[in-house]
Each structure stands twice: as C-alpha cells, then as structure tokens.
C-alpha cells in the first residue's frame, strides 16, 4: 500500500471543499453549463496571470495543442519540430493535423529540446516549433524564438506542465505565438475533470480559436470554418477560478520541497533538477536521474512511496509513431529514457512525509 502517493489531489480538494461545493452550486443554480460567465472570467484571469493578451478555454491540453497548430496554419505534409521526450499528446496533436513530427534531441541537464540542434532540422517544409516545458522547467525560449524569427516559423509552447514557471523573468506561455495549458487533475493547476487553455497575443488567432472551438460558429447556426466541439464546461471553469488565488503559493510550496530534496540528495550519485538564476521551475515533477531508476522505483513502492518513471519510452519509439516521424540522432533522449524517476511533490505534502521520502531515498543509496 502506498502511504505517500505520487499525487494526492484529494487532499487539495478536501481543503477547498466548501469553496468548490459553493462554486458547483453557483453553476447548477445558474443553469448555464457551457460557454458562460465562468469561462469568460477564467479566461480573463489566466491571461492576466500568464501575461498574455488573450486566453481561450478548451476541453483539454491535447485539444489546446490541436487547435493551436490548426490556427498556426499547420497542414498535411508540413513538418513540426518538437522533442521526443514528452507526453505522447505533443506529437499526437501534430499527427492529428496530418503533419510530421520532427524530433530534435534534448539537453541532458534540463530534459528540454536542445536549441543548438534545431537549425539543422529545419527544411522548406518546416512550419512550426513546439517546445515543451518539461516537468515544470521552461525550455530555452529566448534562443528558440530567435531561430523561429530567422526562419519565419510559428512557436507553440506546450506549457501543460508549467503554468506559473518563468524563463528570463517572463512567464511560460507568454513567449510563443500560441501556448497550451492543461488542467488535467494532477497538473499544478488541476480541474476536477479535463480542461485546457490556449494563450496568445495575436487577436486574429484568438478570434479564430473562439470560433473553431464551437464548430467554427461566428453567429448561431452560421459557420465560417470546419471546427471542433471542445469547450471547458462552466463547472470546471468555476472550480479553477476558486483555485487560481492559491496557485502561486502552491508553486512556491513545490519549490520549497524541491529545495529540501535537492539539499538532502546533493551527495548522491544521481542527477538532480537544474535551475538557472533567472528561471522559475514549478516542479510539476521532481526528477531523480539514475541508471538504477527501476530498482529505486521498486524499492520506494515496496516501502509505500509512490513514484514513476517519466518517460520510459521516447516518442520516436512509440508504436504509433514508428515510421511516421523524422529524426536524425536522439542519443540523449535514448540515454535518458527509463532513468528519470519522479518522487512525490505537491503543495499538500507534509514535512513529515517529505522527510520520509528523503530517508527512503538516502537509505536506498546506502
Ligand atoms: C498533460 C500534458 C498534455 C495533455 O494535456 P491533457 O489536458 O491531458 O490533454 C500535453 N502535453 C504535456 C507535456 C502534458 O504534460
């Protein structure tokens, strides 16, 4: 039995029980369940939180990626540069648009796409770059944006794991032409169901996104585009609005736990998360990189501590993508896969639990 699970969202939601039930009541009574005031308010608040001009709520982070690629003009036959070391949805969205994911290897310290390798992957068919801010640490957006500008490529940030993070003092989600957030329950800012959002500073993108999320509608029963049906329901928007005022404190708390972990593990033969001076890592996951990851996973689970390998298989090795993606050399991703173990980190983790995790990890390494 896991006494300290890898995620514990029940604890967060239990603490907010009164506020969440009041929010649910408000929506139930009000009777508007789709595309109402709760959505409008949440979009306004998240746009402001992430220093973005527009925010468009959708049903998931995956749909946020699909709709972003769509409005960025990605078409069948196009190539989109991204990382193979991410959740499947990043490349799945590219394939969904009929484009080809072109995988570029990661930087071994940050686990994010290595900007130094992007240029050699650009061809005449390249349309966009999708950097992922993995585990809560932003990719090197300053450099990526410079490359994108030089080659006239769209930049779509996959910020699904990184709301509240910063790169060079500027929020994740405010760097790209478009940026995608996920409110999947275990994310740093989680709903009680699916949810997602797209951020952009471009008015034309925001206007088109608002239409295509509802069947390309510009006026009831009048359709300008072949769209989708992907909306955040009012109940989830209401829950998220209640949670937003806590998000900065929650991310701070994650950072405090990460600091305690990193201090405790500083002498172990493992690679710890990295963070530069001008970065704000929000530790969606706290990762220990070790060749003994599987052994450590088994040991911790045997002792009641939840953990998991993120990710065991890079995307170019996924059955769904073999022969359907492009890459040159992905040696760092290959070497990293299966060696990165996530241990419990969430705002509600108690100091006692934190110490228990530390003791177990230290004990494993003797
Ligand atoms: C969670 C996640 C997604 C997908 O978000 P959903 O809301 O689950 O659809 C996409 N990319 C990354 C990096 C994620 O972590």
Note down, in words, how this protein is organized.
The chain is an alpha/beta fold and 366 residues long. It is 36% helix and 15% strand. It is built from 12 helices and 16 strands. Strands 1-9-8-5-4-2-3-15 form an 8-stranded mixed sheet, with helices on both faces. It has a 3-stranded antiparallel sheet with strand order 7-6-12, with no helix packed on it. The two termini are 24 Å apart. The model has no long low-confidence stretch (mean pLDDT 97). It binds pyridoxal-5'-phosphate (PLP).
Unreliable spans are: none
In angstroms, what separates the terminal alpha carbons?
A: 24 Å
What strand order characterises the main sheet? 1-9-8-5-4-2-3-15
Broad shape: globular
Number of strands: 16
Strand content: 15-25%
- SS-based structural class? alpha/beta
Please state the average pLDDT score.
Answer: 97
The secondary-structure element order is: HHHEHEHEEHEEEEEHEEHHEEHEEHEH
Main β-sheet description: 8 strands, mixed
Radius of gyration, in angstroms, nearest whole number: 20 Å
Our count of helices gives 12
How would you concisely characterize the structure shown here?
By secondary structure, this protein is α/β, with parallel strands linked by helices.
Keywords:
366 residues; eight-stranded mixed β-sheet; three-stranded antiparallel β-sheet; 12 helices; 15% strand; globular; binds pyridoxal-5'-phosphate
Chain-wise SSE layout:
Layout lengths: L8 H7 L1 H14 L6 H13 L4 E5 L2 H11 L7 E4 L6 H8 L3 E4 L22 E5 L10 H11 L2 E5 L7 E2 L2 E2 L6 E5 L13 E5 L2 H10 L4 E3 L2 E2 L10 H11 L2 H18 L14 E2 L5 E4 L3 H10 L5 E2 L16 E2 L3 H6 L3 E4 L7 H14 L2
Parallel strand pairs: 2-3, 2-4, 3-15, 4-5, 5-8
Antiparallel strand pairs: 1-9, 6-7, 6-12, 8-9, 10-11, 13-16, 14-16
Bound molecules: pyridoxal-5'-phosphate.
